[in-house]
Write a structure and sequence with these properties.
By secondary structure, this protein is α/β, with parallel strands linked by helices. It has 9 helices and 8 strands. Strands 1, 2, 3, 4, 5, 6, 7 and 8 form an 8-stranded mixed beta sheet that branches. The N and C termini lie close together (11 Å). The N terminus is likely disordered. The structure holds SN-glycerol-3-phosphate and calcium ion. This is Glycerophosphoryl diester phosphodiesterase.
Length: 254
């Protein structure tokens, strides 16, 4: 790029590995988080839910059926039951030793090594999960923004507000699925009261939405990139971070 157009290319865009580097290793496992770090992603995203016995577990679906060799709802299984499951073979036999991690295990291993974007997944199924996540972050000294790059987000905006009231110094984001009506200024005004990030589906994104989010003093990390074209588009329109299954598709740095 010529000197006149260098600014956009030089902007630091956060490369965020979705459920870890889930294009290359089974989602939401230590192998996927390790791969994200190896690939030099700035952060990885994970989904947190709660076991029957109140432990914070890292898994996307509300059942274990798709990503393990077991069956049943996360909320009806104990941690011990979930720990006995194979969380890697569905992706490839090479990952047969992977198990469902707890949030504590992930923080123990990756605190100081990677930013972590924590999604509270289906929190209405797990009363009290906001306090438990806050307690786990506090136990790991991750309750102050200067300590590490930690962001908490959810599609459930009440849950985001609840978390924010408990740990106001940890940045939070609202997730938004595709809505043909777009995102109104009224919505942005209400998000701004507590949120630092507005993270819509990439299908909602254009340069003007990003500008409006910035005008309301928030940042945006759209999701989920699975091809190079979308990565290039989001870099071009000025996303602040990009949530991707393939961290190597999203590296604007020379
Ligand atoms: O981080 C955003 C993205 O993870 C939201 O969708 O279904 O992959 O949790 P989902
Ligand atoms: Ca997620």
């Amino acid at each position: 790029a010529s000197e006149g157009t260098a600014t956009k290319a030089q902007k630091q865009v956060l490369n965020i590995a979705h459920r870890g580097a889930s294009g290359y290793a089974p989602e939401n496992t230590m192998a996927a988080f390790e791969k994200a770090v190896e690939m030099k992603a700035d952060m990885f995203e994970l989904d947190v839910q709660m076991s029957k016995d109140g432990e914070l577990v890292v898994i996307h679906d509300t059942t274990v059926d798709r990503t393990t060799d077991g069956t049943g709802s996360v909320k009806d299984l104990t941690l011990e039951e979930m720990k006995s499951l194979d969380a890697g073979s569905w992706f490839s036999e090479a990952f047969a030793d992977e198990t469902i991690p707890t949030l504590g295990e992930v923080l123990d291993e990756y605190k100081g090594k990677s930013g972590i974007l924590i999604e509270l997944k289906a929190p209405s199924l797990y009363p009290g999960i906001e306090q438990k996540v806050a307690d786990e972050l506090t136990a790991h000294h991750l309750d102050k923004p200067e300590n590490e790059k930690i962001i908490v987000q959810s599609f459930d905006h009440e849950s985001v507000q609840k978390f924010h009231d408990i740990l106001p110094e940890v940045p939070v984001g609202v997730l938004l699925g595709y809505n043909p009506e777009g995102i109104s200024d009224e919505q942005l005004e209400s998000f701004k009261k507590y949120a630092d990030y507005v993270n819509p589906s990439k299908s909602m994104i254009d340069a003007s939405l990003i500008e409006r989010i910035h005008d309301f003093n928030m940042l945006t990390h759209p999701w989920t990139v699975r091809d190079r074209e979308s990565a290039n588009f989001l870099l071009e329109v000025g996303a602040d971070g990009i949530i991707t299954d393939y961290p190597d598709y999203v590296d604007p740095r020379p």
